[in-house]
Amino acid sequence: MTYLLQQVLNALQLGSIYALIALGYTMVYGILTMINFAHGDLFMVGAFFCFLAATFLHLPFVPTLLIAMIGVALLGVLIERFAYKPLRQAPRVSAIITALGVGIFLENFTLVFAPYPQHVPTLIKNTTWVVGGVSISSLQLIIIALSLVLMAFLDFIVRKTMVGMAMRAISWDKAIVPLMGIPLNLVISATFALGTSLGGAAGVMYALAFPVIDPYMGILIGWKAFIAAVVGGIGNIRGAMIGGFILGGVEILVAAFLPSTYRDFVAFTLLLVLLIFRPYGILGKPRPQKV
Amino acid sequence: MNRLRMIWEKIVTNRKLLPVLLVVGLLLSFAIPKFGLLNQYVVLIIIYVGINIILSTSLNLINGYMGEFSVGHAGFMAVGAYISAILTTKIIPESLAPWLFPLVVIAGGIGAALIGLLVAVPSFKTRGDYLAIVTLAFLMIVKSVIENIEAIGGPRGIPGITRLTTLPWTFIWVVIAVWVIRNFVYSNYGRGVLSIREDEIASDLMSVNSRQVKMLAFVISSFFAGVAGVLFAHVLQFISPRVFDIIKSTDILIMVYLGGIGSIAGSILGAVIFTVLLEVLRPLGMWRMVLMPLVLVLLMIYRPRGIMGLREFRWFIPGYDLFASKIWRKKKEVKDAAAS
Predict the structure, then answer these.
(1) What is the nearest CA distance from B210 to chain A, expressed in angstroms?
(2) Interface predicted TM-score (ipTM) of this complex, two decimals
(3) Chain A contacts of B255, Cβ < 8 Å?
């Protein structure tokens, strides 16, 4: 029982990281119906910003997190302006390929400067409490709490503020809404900034939880977060959160009770089974097809 | 300049040149290794170009002509590569291996095609991003299954595969792949594939058997991915699950979209340019991997449909199509003249 509780805690930790990254995918998809495959690599860049700030500037945790989030958000906005904006009218697939290209660029650009895996210094003094046989580390609690706060903040922005209203309106109809005086480009930039900054925050948390980082770490985690977004129903913000926690839970529980090499196998088979029964994800709604 | 253009036009429109070129190519592919016309390194690059052509044309069938987004091509490759590697290293004695190699290639292709049949089933219901996920999950499952079977080396892979892929075999398989896929695309089924890309419901109403068409497209595409996997394994001489990861799939995707979707000539061009460019830029060291995606992004911004767009090289278009478009153009000229 304590073992199970312990694993649930681990699952929450991993799931919150997945959920934060999945939010970035789902927000961009919701507004542009485009899969931003560079997002996993932006997560990696966030981890590297954390590494740079902590190693060379010796900053404590909160400024590091802010630097990573703002840095990644700026990068995301820049990428949108220069790589995706010219392609808004182009076929959807060319935008996806551009995103893949941007992702590979980020990976290899980082690789030029950091050819070896880097070790991130500990930013938070880790204390472990044992409650009823379950050991809880302060780092785990901080990661879970912080990501919940960030998610609640995002949900608040999207549902209660003017910017959020504009985002929802634009995802509803991109042609009419700008005629109502809503600045399309500004809102899209804001969406990218929000989504990617969450990815950057996830990068920092990942770097703290698993302190060895390398330029290719964003690929697999990015794809898995994308899967989480799809499981929850892509384009749906609450769905992405649920999907992230489901994926984290499945991965940790499989690794806990089966040989850990079965982890991907079981996780992806479950995903396929889920997609057979809910082809549009958990919270997604099937779009009616028109002839 | 004008004369050069005329000569070029003549070459391009003359279909009788095609068999001549094929025979010359086949003879060259035998002659180059035999007399050492090119050094080993260049021969190796040519073999890789050939393998990449097979991969990109077969992926183009699904991603270009059928309009789906499959990212699992490396998985089919892995199936073919593993089946063949087990056959040549464990079952077939070494002395017989060069003679049985064509059968091994076909066996790898059929294995991959059977798996392709499995992947085709979810494509009946799901489309777009969700099918992308299904193929991605398929790739991960294949990788994970291979990693968990100790008998085929698990995560360590299979070392010590004999180098059986020669230049003639690569050439022959490239020709077969391009020929089969081109004929499929311009057959009745191929028209069905195109109609599914444009509108699935409408094509169903026009009595296209979309399930059959999708299944055929997936089987043919995965068969040739398997073939490419076999050739790849027997030139690399070592395979492990890590070789066939998502990065390999992305490479193939880039080749297809670089050349242009829905165009066989585009796939060939994309594969050649991608492979050769990576080798030419090798002196740049690490920076070439930075430059390559930048080139891709710029190309996508300025030519979003790839190098060839939806156009096709004359030789690949069947005669009656050319004839029909000629008549259409003439009628349009008459109409335009009448209108003005």
Answers:
(1) 16
(2) 0.80
(3) none
pLDDT for A165-181, tens place per residue?
Answer: 998 888 888 888 889 88
Does residue B195 lie within any of the structural domains?
yes
**Rounded Cα–Cα distance for residues B31 and B311 (Å):** 34
Q: Where are the alpha helices (DSSP H) in chain B?
A: 2-13, 17-35, 40-60, 73-86, 97-120, 128-148, 167-185, 188-198, 200-205, 210-236, 246-259, 264-280, 287-302, 319-339
Provide the angle, in degrees to the nearest 10, between the axes of the packed helices B210-236 and B97-120.
140
Strands A212-213 and A118-119: antiparallel
Over the stretch A107-146, which tens digit does the pLDDT of each residue have?
A: 989 888 888 888 888 877 778 888 777 888 888 889 999 9
Domain hosting B48: range is: 32-309
Judge whether B338 lies within some domain: no
Count of domains observed in chain B: 1
Query: CA dist B221 to A11, A67, B117, B253, B311, Å?
Result: 39, 47, 10, 14, 21
Residue B230 lies in a domain: yes
Domains delineated in chain A: 2-277 (1.10.3470)
Tell me the C-alpha distance between B278 and B284, whole Å: 10
Of B147, B261, B294, the CB nearest to A93: B261
- Report if residue B205 sits inside a domain: yes
